[in-house]
# Entry
Amino acid sequence: MTTSAHAEKSGKANRENSSVPVSFLVTSYNKVAYLATVLASVWHEAQANGGEVIVIDDGSTDGSEKVCAAFVEAHPAVHYSRRDNRGIYATINDIATKARGKWVRFCDSDDPLLPGSTRRLIEVAEKNGAGVAYGTALPYGPNPLAESQVAGAVSAPGASAVHADGTMYLIQGMNFTPSMSIYRRDLLKEALPLPQDLVSCQDLALLFPIIHHASLAYVDEPVCFNLKGARNQLSANHALTLHQTIRITQHYAPLLSAEHKRAALLKAANRTRRWLRKARPELNSLGTQLRLLSIATLAKLGALDFNTKLEQIAEFYEHDLQPILEQRAKPF
# Structure
């Protein structure tokens, strides 16, 4: 029996147990240098919370499969599968359907979890009656962390609260990643399946429909480490993040109020003005800046067609990003 088949069988038997407080969902793709430490941190959190661990490797080509196989061999209760690369949106759609926990924690394969962080996030969510809770992160990288560094990490308790308008926070200031948050599993049905014409910022795509139905809580306290400086991170491509944010906002436009749409247009126009000045000076003509400034000004008044203007802004990024958009989540 292959390791993957053994993991599928073991995971199936494990999931027949109906009482699972937390599902830890690890999506793996070409982060072999960081993966072992992340998996160890997830396992410790699962043991501390009585949770299940589900891992999908999305066709890694860097040796990640061997790390996953060794992890499953040491922890047969883990549900593990590997398939040809399909991208992060398809992977989220797949892995989320396997979860049975009351709570779900999506885990990036390069962001180790802090000890005790899952329990803390659940406490914050339950205390505030929230469907999603998130914390902060400790930056590291690009060198990997040792398991001992993660296991010995301690964070001081921070204050928690609920966003008065969670959707407006997503539009104006969202600053957390999947590993920094926890979701009530029953709310995932509001977001799944995710649209598969997108390639990045999957946490934002999950959150728009969920926060439309539930509140968003936060705690000023580190709950994981967050990798910085790795060259093959999709999130390191600023233009891709700006582009995908626009496309996600367009997709979920029916959930947005007029005030939300004004805020989204204003932010997209101003972020693009700054991006052009910094990254594409050859396109940064006076006419272009004035056109974007006009969009930002009129957006404040609610005097623009939302989808038309967002489409015009998105087009600034299309040419440069086309190879990434065509390859989905493969490294650029």
The radius of gyration is 20 Å. Strands lie at 22-28, 52-57, 79-82, 103-108, 132-140, 160-162, 181-184, 216-227. The CA atoms of residues 23 and 99 lie 6 Å apart. The chain has a mean pLDDT of 89.
